[in-house]
Amino acid sequence: MVSRMTGFSSTEHGFRFVNSFQLPAALQHILPSRSASHLGLSDLLYGLCGGMCFAALDYFHAGKPVPDVWRADEISDALFSHLVTRQVDSLRRGVVLKVLAWMARSDISLARSVAGWEAAKVRAQVDAGQPPVLALIRVKGLSDPMCNHQV
Hints:
By secondary structure, the chain is mainly alpha-helical.
């Protein structure tokens, strides 16, 4: 088997901060806060995994280093905006519908799809020197699609 590389290294080209963000303060003020009986949206943390993947690729393709920031709460407004924009872009690519469809499938059905054609798509991208972004399906059924992840 021939080994192929794209030139992308997560340690060199990936962001250094954890994929965990709080809602911006402007939204926290207008959303209900936690009470004894429920958890308000302003208490939630969320991730921007797709945004981080595609933004890292933007820097990689531009030949520029990612910003040297080690904590998500220290990123600039411009970088945060770019991550959110790229997150939305990643979801526009049909990822949401595909993830939901794959969550509903059996393990055998998914294995056949991966072996049959998904692995070939990834291989073609790598052979072309293009780092692929993968959707990892981590939950079954339609219980919580937000538990899945893009890498």
